[in-house]
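Key result, reporting period 2: structure in, sequence out.
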C-alpha cells in the first residue's frame, strides 16, 4: 500500500468518524426542539479541531511507518486524485443546488448551513471512497 493510499484511508476514516459524530450530536435536538445556530458553534469548532489533529497524527503515524515513501507521488497517484476530484464534484454541486433551493424557500439558516456542510462532507467521503476503489481495482 502506497503512502498516498494510506493517507487517503486515514483521512476518509477520520472525516467519517468526526462528522458522523457531529451530525449524530447536532441533528436530534434540531429535529425535536428546533434548530439553533447558537448551540452548534462549539460542536462545529470541536469537529474541525478533531479533524485537523486526527489528520496530523494519522499522517505522522503513516509517515513513520514508511518514511521513504512519504514524498513519492507518481503519475498514477495524480491521475487517481484528479479522477476522484472530478467525480466527487457532482456531489458537491448537487448539495450547492439544494442549499440554494433551501435559501430560495427561506428555510432557517441552520438547515442551509448544514446542507452546505453535509455536501462538503459527503463530497470528501465520496472522493475518499473513489480513490480507494481506484487504488484497489485500478484505473
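The corresponding designed sequence is given below.
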Amino acid at each position: 500500500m502506497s503512502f498516498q493510499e494510506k493517507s487517503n484511508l486515514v483521512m476518509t476514516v477520520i472525516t467519517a468518524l468526526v462528522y458522523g459524530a457531529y451530525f449524530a450530536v447536532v441533528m436530534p435536538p434540531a429535529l425535536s426542539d428546533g434548530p439553533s445556530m447558537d448551540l452548534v458553534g462549539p460542536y462545529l469548532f470541536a469537529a474541525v479541531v478533531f479533524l485537523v489533529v486526527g489528520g496530523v497524527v494519522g499522517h505522522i503515524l503513516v509517515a513513520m511507518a514508511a518514511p521513504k515513501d512519504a514524498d513519492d507521488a507518481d503519475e498514477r497517484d495524480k491521475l487517481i486524485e484528479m479522477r476522484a476530484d472530478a467525480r466527487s464534484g457532482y456531489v458537491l454541486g448537487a448539495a450547492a443546488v439544494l442549499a440554494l433551493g433551501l435559501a430560495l424557500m427561506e428555510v432557517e439558516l441552520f438547515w442551509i448551513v448544514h446542507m452546505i456542510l453535509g455536501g462538503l462532507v459527503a463530497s470528501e467521503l465520496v472522493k475518499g471512497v473513489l480513490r480507494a476503489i481506484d487504488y484497489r481495482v485500478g484505473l
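The helical segments are 3-33, 37-65, 75-104, 109-137. Residues 3-137 form one domain. This case is discussed further under Risks and Mitigation.
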